[in-house]
Amino acid sequence: MLYQCHSNRLEELAEQLITTLANPMAGPLTPETLVVHGTGTRRWLSLQIATRQGIAGNLEYLFPAEFIWWLYRRQLPEVPITNAFDLPTLTWRVLAQLENQGELPTHETLTQYLSTTDEHGRWHLARRLARMYEQYLLYRPDWIARWEQGHDAKDWQASLWRQLMRHGDERHWLALQPALYRSLDVHSTAINLPSRLSLFALPTLSPGYLQTLQRVSEQTDVFLYTLNPSAVYWAQITSEKETLRATQRDKEVISHHFDPGNTLLASAGRQQREYFDLLLELEGQSIDCFSAPDETTLLGRIQADVFQLQDRSPNPRSNPNDDSIQVQVCHSPLREIEVLHDRLLDLFERHPHLAPGDIAVLAPDIEIFATSIEAVFGAVEGSRYIPFSIGDRSLLVTSALVNTFFSLITLNDSRLEANEIIDLLDHSAVHHRFGLDHNDLSQVYQWISDIGVSWGLDDTALMTMDFPAGSVRTWRSAIERLLLGHALPAQDQFFMGRLAYPLHDTAQSRLVGHLVNFLEAIFNLQQQLSRARTATAWGTELNRVLDQFFSPEDEQENDLNRLREAIEVTAVEATTAGYDREFDLSVFRLSLEQQLKRSASSPLPAGRVTFGTLTVGRAL
């Protein structure tokens, strides 16, 4: 049976879910399967369940695409663990076909672009195409079916799709859907499915996913908890723009036949409107858990208009203390955060029931404000301190270790400038790995400054870049001067035309040895990274780089482990896609960056003000 629960409050949906979960599953060790939109919703929901029940355990969270593939794997034999049509894997598959010049579809613009771009450009195009095909599978299944039947022969996208089918796994979820339906029809009870499935606060689902849920609900209970801003049927309302377009297409259409309902909802809720229209077509039971908004404030009045699907004329705020909606004009992001901090302190003082965990601060790009948030919220103490957390940030921007690692793996394109090498050595995990401590660095930096190292490995490297030998002081010349200073007595400063850099004691000689070990490792790394390798070989090489250059402290271990996991996942994705060619590091680096962005930390609203991107607000 399919059960739909609608509410305009996320807390009420969570309450209904927790009530349902109170009824135990058939087996005491069977996990509850919960489908959520993102990690932010997952953590928030776990916190709500733990608050109500005292513990949140034995919960299996899945995202929508993972859930559908999970269904197929439980019901059908020989379905692979990894979906060859998820975005990362599909990117590598498309890239392989773009590089297969002999079978590429004929298209002038595509051919011209591929003939003039490099591996970097081909990877970006492959990712764009993979994302497009992923959306076609969800929302244009009729196109996919036509293409696989051989239609649209002149369409280069169709030709490229058929090429993908010929050169790899063709078991996408649409192709497996008939087999899933036959499996569900054969069994009177879906023995491979749990007795209950719950989908919580999903902003939208494709028609194909909803159809699959309908069929699955014939064999097991499916609970669909949906956040709905209005208790009134609003699937047929139209915005002013849509009304104008309709009247322009057909002059005989009478514009007043189009009902805008609530103009804010009509203009901003188009995708949701179409989704709710699809939900109405599903068979099952519907449970309404709406609660009318409080209209004592301006914000409450707007929410009530949306809730009741009406447009009342705007009235001036009769209550001068009504600050439910505020517009602050600030001259910089830092000033915006300062004003926000002051306004939150004022709210907490005037509303004692309000807690930091009740506050979510959303921005289109949280990175613009991240440093200001830490400077303002993290600098205060005592009664003015407000606990906070910043989510939706990847290791690329939060971890100095990861940033240093990416600086290392770009050395193959580097001139080895002095400041660049100094920045690498400055990271604690790096200089500890080579036997240096923080006090040693000032001496090393002084040597580099005194010798006047500019850039370049040696004179040979200078000449490859069309610079005359000896035109700048290179790292190799600096090493020679330091080693001569160790080997020669104080009264001898020259050896074969080379000027020694005097060292004063054995401690400095020991320090030179550590510095030389670091620089030689850098020189060798630059050569190693210049070779083309397979994805598996790049994974092995980058793990070797981590072992050679980093000795992390305890608080850095987590970042290092997450980086290793991302490297492994990136290599496995390429291998799963069948991409066995050798390629430059820049391509692997791009894919690794995307993997780290996908694994960005989400805000955990556990008693703290939560900062995140607007995507968090889609469910919260």
Structural account:
This protein is of the alpha/beta class. It has helices at residues 10-21, 39-53, 64-75, 87-98, 108-116, 119-139, 141-148, 156-166, 173-186, 207-216, 240-249, 263-268, 270-280, 298-308, 333-350, 367-377, 395-398, 400-408, 418-426, 428-433, 438-451, 459-464, 475-487, 506-528, 535-549, 557-576, 585-598, and strands at 2-7, 32-35, 59-62, 196-200, 221-227, 285-288, 360-363, 388-390, 494-495, 498-499, 609-613. Strands 3-2-4-5-1-6 form a 6-stranded parallel sheet, with helices on both faces. A hairpin with a 2-residue loop joins strand 9 (494-495) and strand 10. Helix 3 (64-75) packs across helix 9 and helix 25 (535-549) runs antiparallel to helix 26.
Give me a quick take on this structure.
With 620 residues, the chain is α/β, with parallel strands linked by helices. 52% of the residues lie in helices and 7% in strands.
Features:
620 residues
In DSSP terms (H or I, runs of 4 or more residues), the helix count works out at 27
Largest sheet: 6 strands, parallel
Backbone structural class:
alpha/beta
Strand content: 5-15%
Poorly predicted residue ranges: none
Q: Separation of termini?
A: 27 Å
General shape: globular
Q: How confident is the prediction overall: mean pLDDT?
A: 87
Helix fraction? 40-55%
Major beta sheet, strand line-up: 3-2-4-5-1-6
- Report the count of strand segments: 11
Over the alpha carbons, how many angstroms does the gyration radius reach? 31 Å
